[in-house]
Design brief:
The chain is an alpha/beta fold and 222 residues long. The chain has seven helices and twelve strands. Helix content is 38%, strand content 22%. Helix 5 packs across helix 7.
Length: 222
Amino acid sequence: MTHILYIEDEIDIGTWVTKDLTERGYEVTWLKSGEDAEKYVSQVDLAILDVMIPGLDGFSIGRRMKKEKGDLPILMLSARTAVEDKIEGLHFADDYLTKPFHPDELVARVEVLLRRYQKNEDVLKLQHLTIHTKDMRIVDNETNEEIQLTGKQYHLLQFFIRHLNQILTKEQLYEGVWGERYIEGDKTLMVHIRYLRERIERNPAKPTIIETIRGIGYRVKL
């Protein structure tokens, strides 16, 4: 049974979310604060964290969880809809859902994250590439050669893999990989994506792995 750690201090919301997830077959540990969260990290398959909780906020707790268990999928919940909040959450988390939400949407996002990380446990097939996600070893299936990347290229590709099928803005990518606020006009991200495409695309001039979404950012699709 999939075990979910759920941290939410609002009793009404926490009650119906826990009840709904339990009825759908999940085991749920519901905490009202993050005080004891770390002792559950090694035991659970996924974490759902509300941002505004007593004591340490959900962002701080989520970062600690990812540091302790990097392959733990994390879904953030918040009534805060500002782009800056979403970007902060996506620095470390895998998805961000704003309140109010429908239980079906919550479960759909949970299932997507679980499928994504189940694939990531071993091997990810991405067009002509085989990516061994535990050690980020990349093999070109057409040449049987291993593709070597720089450290920053690995981090950029890892961020894309954590957010497969999602359109990511330049701000999300830069702040998620470099950990700094993106400055409009900065070419650093564009240069690194060009170099990464040169390593992993069949034809870097016509990329099919890292898609450019005009006016928004980039996406890697399965």
